[in-house]
Amino acid sequence: MEILVIGGGVIGLSIGVELLLAGHDVRLLVRDKREGASWVAGGMLAPFSEGLRGDFLRFSVESLRLWHDYLERLKEISGRKVFFSQGILRVAFDEKEEKKLREDVKFYSQEVCQNLISYDAEELLKEFPYLSSEVRYGVIYGDEGNVDTEELMEALYVAFEKLGGEIINEDAVKILRNGERIEKVFGFFEEFTADYYVFATGAWLKEHFGFPVFPVKGQILRVEAPLKDYVVYSSRAYIIPREKDLLIGATTENAGFDTKTTLEGVKKLSEGAISSVPQLKEAQLLEVRVGFRPGTPDELPVFYFGENFSVYGGHYRNGILLAPATAEVALKLIDQGEVSEYFKTFSPYRFKE
Amino acid sequence: MEILVIGGGVIGLSIGVELLLAGHDVRLLVRDKREGASWVAGGMLAPFSEGLRGDFLRFSVESLRLWHDYLERLKEISGRKVFFSQGILRVAFDEKEEKKLREDVKFYSQEVCQNLISYDAEELLKEFPYLSSEVRYGVIYGDEGNVDTEELMEALYVAFEKLGGEIINEDAVKILRNGERIEKVFGFFEEFTADYYVFATGAWLKEHFGFPVFPVKGQILRVEAPLKDYVVYSSRAYIIPREKDLLIGATTENAGFDTKTTLEGVKKLSEGAISSVPQLKEAQLLEVRVGFRPGTPDELPVFYFGENFSVYGGHYRNGILLAPATAEVALKLIDQGEVSEYFKTFSPYRFKE
């Protein structure tokens, strides 16, 4: 089939790559490659550290389990390296957090995560002496990990084009829809028709479908620091050592599509980081970045399909983690007509009930 | 005379300009135009806000009184505009600061500063509603002011060259000294001789003369913010609205010539600024800058002269303020052989006593 993917973030690209591998002709419309949340995301694959539950946990864990093979295949196709670190150190700094984290550890170790090691304060500081002495409890979720999102996105673009996909720099200004069929997509310069349409426009999804997806602004610091160890995740900040730099995330702001960094954001993030890992005092600030998570009222994704189109959005804080499973859901629908149960779980109709 | 000035900061340039105006031939060696403290300085002309006393206060006030004419003449010669704002709002946020500031106000109003208005907390918040409600007491020192140091430095360079001065990009690697005479200055590429030598090498003064001048690292934030009013100066931060941006200064660090910005510095400055003027929360961070104040053990300058040379350094936090008076001292010595009393006040021999 001739397929048009609208959206050049991690979701659109992942789906595009799967469709190309299945033999389809794929064009991808992207307004501004760097605009979306994907490039700015921390890149944590962290359903346990995030404390997820229920169907969303199940979907997240399915996606987490795909990641290893997904990345190997992507590296093979693209010929690019993508930095990945295994394991996340989730820590608690106060009594309430400790209680919640102990519950999480109990819950996940029974259910879905065998590979974890928990530490009381003393052991934790012995094992990870760079942590603030205020730390009370911690756990290494060994199955979690972190991916360098910039390298990931570059590899996805390279893979997409190597597989014969076409990138078109265009804004999908308007879509012509007739009931459950898309007739045409109007770009700024051109019009586009295809046999099938995939929409993955992140925080901008509302424009075309009216689903309640809205931007949740996040600021993230990029610093230079010698720390090379696990990602440290707490309510104060998440601290992500990478090969050449370290990320400190992230604010959560209801500020529309305001691309400005703020002093308050920088203050909160630097406070959070230094109070978690005091040696970050000496880290050199390289950059402050802003991204827009595609949020929804219940913080769960929105999946939808019509006759010749489907929609994958609202991944909020977990777009990177959920890309492989989302691409699998899309591939099964588009290539084999198989409707995943997650179209029900993540149906936009839930917002009308 | 043929005069060689070593050092391209505000002190070296100011002296160079005066010497050119007096008819001398002046060459100026500068290793790296942007290296010194001058470009990064906040630009406050603030002897009262700084709480100065004694001979240093006298010298500072003399320099402050020169500033208006100094700037007018500089603008005329250079044809450049230099942003200047009149008056500094000095505020106190706790009891101890309030006590000290009330003493200062009493002292300065009797002695040297007629042009001041003091405010109790309530009046202060009525007059300056953008201040944090924690403010307890404040004063406008009307004779103080603030100069845009980047525009100042650019104007000084333009003026220096318009007056026929020659800028040479060279490092003064070594000087050949014979008792109280300088014989030669060895650059990296060339050697230099002159009838007279002026040394104004800021935080690097120790290299050639062994005087106890050392770098005091300062970080300063440059942000975009709508505030257009007085400079706000307190122990928490100084906040300097300029035409196109706003400066937030400054850390005081004993870190040698370490040019790195730090997360701790950014954190402290943003905390200080937001807790003084809460609306700065929304300010967009544009840049973090680092400079090296030329510090001395007693925080006073070092003036020295020999047969055919003189030295002006150690201006610490007040190099911009003190440039006109320092240039006047130098001009009188070099052009008229008149030895200012300040060579005694700021003699390096005081460190040997």
TrEMBL record, chains A, B:
Keyword match Oxidoreductase:
yes
The UniProt record lists the keyword Lipid biosynthesis: no
Q: Name one GO cellular component term.
A: cytoplasm
Superkingdom is Bacteria
| Gene Ontology MF term list | flavin adenine dinucleotide binding; oxidoreductase activity
Keywords in alphabetical order: Oxidoreductase, Thiamine biosynthesis
One GO process term, biological-process aspect = thiamine diphosphate biosynthetic process
Ranges for domain FAD dependent oxidoreductase: 3-330
Q: Tell me which InterPro entries the record gives.
A: FAD-dep_OxRdtase (IPR006076), FAD/NAD-bd_sf (IPR036188), Gly_oxidase_ThiO (IPR012727)
Q: Which Pfam families match?
A: DAO
Pathway membership of this protein?
Cofactor biosynthesis; thiamine diphosphate biosynthesis
Q: Which PANTHER family match?
A: GLYCINE OXIDASE, SARCOSINE DEHYDROGENASE-RELATED
The name this protein carries in UniProt is FAD dependent oxidoreductase domain-containing protein
Query: What organism is this sequence from?
Result: Aquifex aeolicus (strain VF5)
Q: What is the lineage of its organism?
A: Bacteria, Pseudomonadati, Aquificota, Aquificia, Aquificales
